[in-house]
Amino acid sequence: MADWKHAVRRVLYPAYEARLVRRLPPDRIPRHVGVMLDGNRRWARAVGADSSQGYRAGAANIEPLLGWCEEVGVQVVTLWLLSTDNLHRPPRQLQPLLGIIGDAVEALAGQRRWRLHPVGALDLLPADVAARLKAAEETTRDVDGLLVNVAVGYGGRREIADAVRALLHEHADRGTTLEQLAEVIDVEHIAEHLYTKGQPDPDLVIRTSGEQRLGGFLLWQSAQSEFYFCEAYWPDFRRVDFLRAVRAYAERERRFGT
User: Fold this and answer.
1) Could you tell me the CATH superfamily of domain 32-155+202-249?
2) Do residues 123 and 93 lie in contact, with contact meaning Cβ atoms separated by under 8 Å?
3) Extents of the domains making up the chain
4) Which of 3, 50, 85, 86 is catalytic?
5) Of 38, 201, 203, 236, which is the active-site residue?
6) pTM for the structure as a whole
7) Partner residues linked to 152 by β-bridges
8) Phi, psi (rounded to 5 degrees) for 76
């Protein structure tokens, strides 16, 4: 029975996906998509594997996702691979995960197909991991392709705190007093110091695994984003799931926070 179902899917899904792509209105494609790659460990438990196998399966699904984004015309993707909270995991869990992330980012950079931009508190990461992320960014700096923000050691509260800290340092160097800064500071001043400065805010945020919360992902930038929650664990997230998310976004009437 299971083999029969798989055979039917192999025949029907490509036609269904092609129809989804044809029906996506070109003027309603999200420019920036944020993705919370959630459910790797639960996927591993469900298939009787260990956590590292779950993370590797999740890492293998990143390249297909970027291809799907290119296919429909997305310009920026932000991938949340590791939160600041995850940095407090026991070393026996954290070290293999950091290695898998480093390998995945280097593999993406090696293709020179996408422009990679690490976002997060890189100073909190082990020096060798931070160096691998920075090298991937440098390697792809001149690539004219999809911009991919790789969020490692990322937390929304930490990002806002870092932005305010950078803003204060900048004005201190100029000789601006706190009283003068307090008179003029606004949201744009802070936005100019975020990890994603100069980029459009995410139009669509996707979270896999069935969890329906942000958990600190792009707290500032997602104020007017549309959200899509998918039941599939990240390693099982398919092209059809992505296309359904984009279709749901295209069908919504955006109210921009009102």
Assistant:
1) Decaprenyl diphosphate synthase-like (3.40.1180.10)
2) no
3) 32-155+202-249
4) 86
5) 38
6) 0.92
7) 82
8) -135, 135
